[in-house]
């Protein structure tokens, strides 16, 4: 095992029994503060037991059979840590170069992923992903001085943008959009969507999933396409056009909602 932290030295016996002595590799792709170990058939997520939102366990269990998501193989809290062992989604992330070089497959997978979520009856979803919750979270972060703007789009604040995070928060409160409710992923970006090279194979990182506005996912998916194709991450894919996502999904582009949900995500 790759022992890069003391947090991953002692795996609980119940989880170790399932892994059967397999060696794991640290996942370096995600931005989560959790440690994530990749095994051949499993993923082990290790995070602090306190002050950590573990709603993903309940969300994964609820989504089982409704959408292609990892299955919860074991979940245990011990030694001050939360250990979540999940089956591994087969395939590759949509952000991989070989997928980015196949825009038709990329867009088909994104559209299929959206329609799988939208096919789940939203009234049956026990988890809410409301704008109000996001605004409340953002306001708390701003008031407590915890908000970090370093990952924001360069045009969000300053000349031509908002003066400061408080100004953006107030604008978001004043311009609440009409909701087009659907089950949403909540972090609908290319690294969280998988394909086997022919079709969409599954979602990961569903901890923000719930009943919300379908434009939450459309906006973040559009931005992820843009960032992954325009050189933001170092490489340009000239044959990818983010607006094609709306054509693929069969949804007319709504500039106002697109802008609103990208700006809302800036504060979350």
> Order of helices and strands, N to C?
HEEEHEEEHHHHEEEEHHH
Distance between the termini: 33 Å
Q: Give me the side-by-side strand order of the main sheet.
A: 1-2-3-5-4
Count of DSSP-assigned helices = 9
Please give the radius of gyration in angstroms.
Answer: 19 Å
Number of domains: 2
The helix fraction, in percent, is 25-40%
Say what oligomer this is: single chain
Gross morphology is globular
Quickly give the structural class. Answer: alpha+beta
CATH H level of the largest domain: which superfamily?
Answer: Aminoglycoside phosphotransferase (APH), C-terminal lobe
Tally of extended strands? 10
Largest sheet entry: 5 strands, antiparallel
List segments where confidence is low: pLDDT < 50 over at least 5 consecutive residues. 1-7
CATH architecture of the largest domain: Alpha-Beta Complex
CATH fold group of the largest domain: Aminoglycoside 3'-phosphotransferase, Chain: A, domain 2
Indicate the CATH class of the largest domain. Answer: Alpha Beta
Overall average pLDDT: 93
| Content of β-strand | 15-25%
